[in-house]
Every structure is written in C-alpha cells, then in structure tokens.
Input
Amino acid sequence: MPPPRTAAEVVALCVALALAAPACATNSGPKVAEQLPLVQPAEVADEAFAAALLDVLKDGQRSEARQKTLLGVSRRLLVHAGQRFDAGADERGLKTVLGALYLLRAGEQSHVIVDRETSRAVDAAIERLSARGDLGRTRVLFALRAPTASEAERREIDEHLEAIERFHRETLTGRPLERAGDAERTAVSMAMLSHSHMEEAMRTINDWIALGIHGNVTYQETGKRPPAEEAIEIARSLGTGAVTIVALALRHGDVQDAVQRLLQSNARRVADPQFFSALKDAEQRGDAASFRDLYDALAIEVDGSIGGETGVDADLYEAARFAVLIEAYRKQPDHAPTTLELARALVDLGMCEVVPLLVNEAISDRSTPADVVRGMRSVLSAITTDASAGDFAAAGRTIAASRPLLERAKSLLGSQGGAEAVAELRYTMATILVKGGRAEQAEGLLSEALADAPKPAGHLARARLLRQSRALERALTDVAAVVGTKGADPVDVADARLLEFEIRRDSGDRAAAEAAVSAALSVATKAVVDRKAGVQRARALGALGRVLSAYGDREGARRAFERALGAAPADRDFVSMIMLQAASAGLALGDRESLRMALQTGALAGASADSLVYGALWLTLADRQAGAPPDEAALEILDGAATRASWTGRLAAWARGKVSDETLVKKATSEAARVEAAFYVAMASRARGAPSEDALRLVAASPLYTSPEVNIARNLLAPRASFELPKNLKIP
Output
C-alpha cells in the first residue's frame, strides 16, 4: 500500500509500521562523489551552445575536459537567463538559472560559473526567490554570488540575507513537527542547488520523518486527533519523506547514493516497496530500461501530489526526473520516447536550442511516423516557448539548427505528407522570425516552404518581407501569385491587392495604385456579402475596413471595423487583432473617433490587457497631436498598466510621463521593443511639432511588417493621394 497522501489517510497507517525498529547507522556512510578539480569554464559561444550542451548530455564521464565544457554550458545558460530577465520574462529567466544549476551533479558544482557577466541573472533569481520566501535557495545563490561581489555588494548581500533570516525566525511558530517541517523545506531547498548541504538536509529530513511517525503513533494509541496543521505535516512527512530523500540523491546524479540514503534513514520505514524495487533495479542493472522504469516509478510514488500542503516539492521532483531522464538517454540515445521526453524537460528548463540536435539523432529509418511527428512538435514547442518569452535570438538559433531534422523528417514521412508537414512548420518558423526582425532567415524559410507546398498566405507573407527589403518587383510577383490562385481566401486576395496599392502609390504610379485599391475593394465587398456570420465575416469586415482606410474614408472604415468587432467570436486574440487594426487605421488617418470606438468596443468585446494599452497609447498620441484634452478612459487604462514590469507596462509609464524617452529606449531589449520605442519617441516629437520624419522613416523600413507601428509609420509618410470611391459600387 502506498504511504498516506493526506491528513485523513494518516489514521489508516498501520501501527506496526511506526513501531518498526529504528534505522541503523552504518560506519561507512553514503558514498560522496569526488569533487572535480577547480577549472575555468570553456568559452561556449551562442552558436556553439547547442552542440556543447548535447555533448555534456550524452557524455556522463567525470573528466576535466568535460568539466570545462559543462561549466561553459552552464555559464552560457546564465547569460541567456540574464537576457530573459532583462526582457521581462522573469519566470523563464528563473527556470533557466535553475536549469543551469541542475546540469551540475555532485562533484561538478563550481562557483566559477558566476562572474560579472552572469551575476545579473543570479541577482535577478535571488530577488524572485527571496520574494517568495525561499530561504534555502536564496542562501545558496548568495553564496555563489559572493566571490564576484564588490565589498559594497557583499555588505548588501549580508544585510539582505540577515533580513530574510530575521523575518524567518520571527514568523516561525508552531509545534515541534511544524518547525521540523519548515526546517526540512529550507534544507531541501539548499541541497537541491548545492551538494555541500546534502548531509544537513538528510539529517533534517530524517528528524522530520521520525516526528511524523511519532505523531501518527500517538494518534493510534490515544485516538486523539492532532491539530490540523500538525496532521498536514504528519501526512507530508509519511507521504513524501522517502521520495524526498531519493529525489535529492537522484538530482545530484547518484542512484547508489539514493539507495544508501534511503536504507540508512527513517525513510525506509515509510517507503513503498515497489518504488524501492525500481530504485534498486536501476542501481544494480544501470541500463536504459531500468532508468526509464525509475522515471515512471517517481511519478507513481508521488501519485500526482506535487506541491501544495502535502505534496512533494515541485522543483525537487522536476530536478530528480530530469536527472533520471538524462541517465536513461545516455544509455540509449536512439530511444525516441526517452529523447522526446527529455526534449520536453529541456524546454521547460530553458535549454530549447539543443532540442533539434537531440531529436535528429533519435529519429532513424526505424522510427514510426508518430515519433517523427512528435519530434517535429518538440522542435515547434522549443521555438514557440522562447519566442513567447521574447527571446527571438534563441528561437532563431533553434530554427537554424532544425534544418537537418526537417530534411530527414520530410524523407522519413515521404508519401505520408512529409513535404507538406515540414512546409507548415517552416511557415510557422518564418512567422516567428519576422516577429524577431530576422528577415533574411524568414525569407529563406518561406521560399523553402513555398517550393514544397505553395499557398497564397505564404506568397503574401514573402511579398510583405520583400517590400520591406525594397525588392519591389519580386514582391509584386508574389502578389500576382496570390491573386492568381484559384480558390484563394478573399481576405488574402484583398490584402495582396492592398499591398500592391501601397507599392504602386509609394512609387508614384497613381493609375496602377487606383486599379489595385479598386480591386481590393471589390474583393472585400463581395466577401462581406457572402459571409453572413462568425469569424469569416469578421475577417471580411476587417479587410473592408483596411481598404476603406486606404481610400481615406474615415467614417466608412470606422463602421466596417465596428461591425467586425461586433461579429467577432468570443476569442480574446482575435478581438485584440481586429481592435488593433481599427485603432492603427484611426491613428494613421488622424481619426480620434475611430480610435475611441476601437478602444471602447474592444474593451467590451474582451480584448487583451496589452492590446488595450496600445489602443489607449495611440488615442493619447492622437489627442496630443490634435491639441485636445486626453481621453479619460485611455488614461485610466494607462494608469492601471503603468505599474507592471512588462514592456507594455513600461510603455504605459512612458505615456504617463513616469519614464523618460531615454529610459524607454534603453529598456527596449528586443527588436520589436526597439522599433516600438523609436516609433513612440518620434510620435511624441511629432505631437510637439518637432521634426520626426527621419525617425519614422527608420521605423517604416523595419522588417517587422507585422508590427502596427511599422505600418502606421509607413502610412504617415506615404505620398498624399486621395482616391474616390467608385460611384457604382454599393458598400454593404
């Protein structure tokens, strides 16, 4: 029977279990891994990071050469973590710091990975962990940080640590078992990051389990229920004590140590026999299958009880399973299920760039189509995870490393849609690269995808990229491909015609521009008539709004966008997209009423908080330009966002005068943020009557064609040319 998981189940624990003979200490004690010599980390550049990480994952030998590479990899991860913290992706940054430390087993840990460049990541992690009250890991990270700290920084570290510990002492109350549980949490938290705290952690866990057993015996003998807080601690000690000891040893890469620690502690009295059997099997056999079984046994042992009041520590569980996965992978690197599971763990811990290399080595002619598809999904997950955190540089490196895997996947899937599946993945990759400003890489992927599986949306995306790079004739060729595709989505066709209109207009070809915008209007109008409801009607109305904006028809565009928002389904992302289209058109046209409508209607329809910040910001810019009083609803949105640490929070603070132009530009760490900062500073200058055309011209030339700011800047700078709506065309 598994150990008790909740306070209610404690009462069912057999008295005989608690009365078992106490654990016996041995003279030899647990084997401790020998500390490797102190060496300096190898220099691991970003371009070599994935290959170096793959080497240390595959090779578990404890050699000086590997130690240098390993420390170099961990150090590079800390650099990446610092970049993620700087971009406002705090949770991603913290996970990356932990991932860097989890790679280091007992005997491999070294303070030399922290230097002046990597210390900012450690400082940021300390700030986040101390705010959560995680005293244990905060202590370890302070110790790592101290050797590179200046005298003033060391004083600050000492004061900070003293304040945390004083607060901890002052708030520590409760019965002996509750205090023992608190001490166990802190000791485990420290030992997770540093093997030097292992003995202290084991003593603390052992005492905690003993008190839990005693509390349960007392209940069995007296029938008196313990207080709720104590009952919870009894349940946690009996339910997770054994797995906590094992997980700590496994996290540091030593299954033999895990067995010895378990046998020499009170944990052996509450350990599930099947779990111990899986652990012992991995110690004795040491092959891939036994480690895979141990990986599964860890999940069964915790039985879904992770974190919370009675569950095992979530970070410890993650670290232990990660270490077991690495061992299983080392012993059989071509076992696809293990590799794919390891890939998922690496993504979670901020090491996405190695995923395509890892998967590529696991996929072979013997792989099933399902494994190949899962491998491609792993790569997509790696890319989108970094992109979602604003780390487009890492996403770009992962995409570049994916080429061999994609070619192999296309071949292995063959007639089962391999070319089409790979093309779809490349289309998605290109979209991500565009958002990161990596135009050349994105164009190459689009060209490869179009060669294998051409589609109008792909031609349109490449046409927009080519227009930004001034390859206008090639862009028009892609426009013609969209228009000439039978059965193409009318919205794509309308947007292609709009793109043609802009190219012709900007080139001074008035007649061709008028023909293109007229064709766009015809297609968009028919789409609105044909589509009666739902997302397709909303898309058609949005296209009509964009076309009418090109004509300069403020009222018509406003009505079309308002109807699009009314027809939009209850989908936050879609509503936000339509709202931003409406608001950006309003700003480009200088139509404050359109901006106000977009903001109000978007808020009622459930647009995202970030999109509302942009809408409010654009409305305040238009009000400034017009010399009008600021909109109160817009100010309320900006004030509510100005305290957030995100990029939109910084923009809101800037709009409210709490952040200077110089600070906003300095805080822009991604390409998208840099473009936005340049745009808003230029628009503020424009509102003051100062020259802004040169700055806006730089924004308009950015490869970020999906950026509303780029499109607004381009339209503001476009030649002034008015086109009359066709008199014989009835707009629905």
Q: What stands out?
A: The chain is about 70% helix and 0% strand. The two ends are 70 Å apart (CA to CA). The first helix runs from residue 7 to 10. Residues 59 and 330 are 7 Å apart (CA to CA).
